[in-house]
Give the backbone structure.
Amino acid sequence: MPPPRGLDFLIRNEQGRWAEELVIEAINNETDFKAVRYGISRAVMVENYGKWVEYWRKYQSVEKYGKRPNVLVFHKNTFRAFEEELRRYSNSFGDESLIPEEIWESYVRKSICALEVEMSLWRASKMPDKGMKLPLRKLNVIAPMIWVKEEDAIKLENWIRRYGKPIYVIQVFYDLAYIAQLKLIIDKANRIKSAQNEEMRKVLMKREGLIVESQKYADEVTGVTTTKTVYRLHPAAAMLFGELIEPPKINVEVLEDKNGKIIPFLRFSDGKLKINPEVIKMWSSLMS
């Protein structure tokens, strides 16, 4: 499979990288857990397309069981036992994400859970339907939703079947972040899709707090626009992951494609996330 390309992909990749780094830093600095990159690296300098092509080819050869989640979470005491060993592997292969699955497997089984981290360009606290309760009063809500593409959910389920570890999806906004277990989202989606008619489907979506809909996306590989099913979970059915107690810095930068097209984009950096103590309790319960 050829690597994803295009300026839209580069921009999403860069903004996702910031969200991922924000979450990893908060976990590692505030808690007894250690977050480690595992899935495809958003830190690769994709502005250099040749480097990106080389990285993508290597990554495709190591990703085996559906889709690797972005991040693995370990208890720090567990992680210390193999931290140096994992660092040597990372240096040997060039990046944690390029360590073959055969080597990763024994470490993955020592993890607490895994994370998928996404980013949205909204100030969550100002979205008008943020405080709506279940069942939702309407479906066209403007709220800080957790987004999952159905095709990604299917691939991540394959990974869960292999390792038996829960995956949590974290959606980072400008000021807040929300979290939900992927299994919760998939179970809700399955109940909604089992509806016998469209009217019952709408009732179930309001009850579950999950919008299942089709949206058009430009394919990251071919550039062709395709229709994909997405799941959007309302915060009333999720949990607050944390609050940004220091806002990110935002710089306006410019990308230029090979044909000379100019696209401005927002590059996020810094910021500080304070994690909800209930999340720490939830992850601690996975160890018992």
